[in-house]
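re: that chain from earlier
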Amino acid sequence: GDKARNKEHVNVPLTMAPAYSRKVWNFLIFDLQPVMRPLLVEKFRKPLAEWIAAQWPGIGPDPLAPPMEFNTADGRIMRRGRGYYILPHRDPKWGFLTGILYLARPHDNEQWGTQLFAVDEDGEAMGAAPHWIDPDKCRLVVDVPYRRNTMLVMLNSCGAHGARIPEDAEPADLQRHIYQFRIGPSHPTILWLTEMLSEEQRALWAGKVAPA
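^ sequence. v structure.
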């Protein structure tokens, strides 16, 4: 609540919270995510491998084989409400996959989830910061519902995602809670991949790096 109205979030693992909350989220971070991560990478194997091979042509016949190693980073619980709007964008480039776990309560309706867009004249993100895209170039493909016990996972290499909650959305105290995380290469893998890039390409990948 100390952040701007539509930028409220708390990073996890939690450093200060009730014991039960810490237990629940520590289980997700330290027990569940290590199991979930390889399953999601395997689920996206074909498009993910094709995209990595296009970025690093000399990586070898299986871009997902060692020394390629993935980790999970940037996990945070986010709260959104009436009037929230985030422009179509892609997340920082070193997060190869973005995951959004919907933390819907039993009484929440399924409106105002996540919007996925196709982008006209789509191009590569210039730098490792979030890649903001002109809404006039975006065409809504699907409005993903805010549904209990579901998770949206997307390849963070093309297109865009965003969200909007109208100022007059009902009920008046409407809130949306999500857990967002990214799956990308570990820090040693980032160093290895960076060494394979040309000087010109490195400029496209400079900046925010996921922790080891």
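Helices lie at 19-43, 45-55, 187-195, 199-205.
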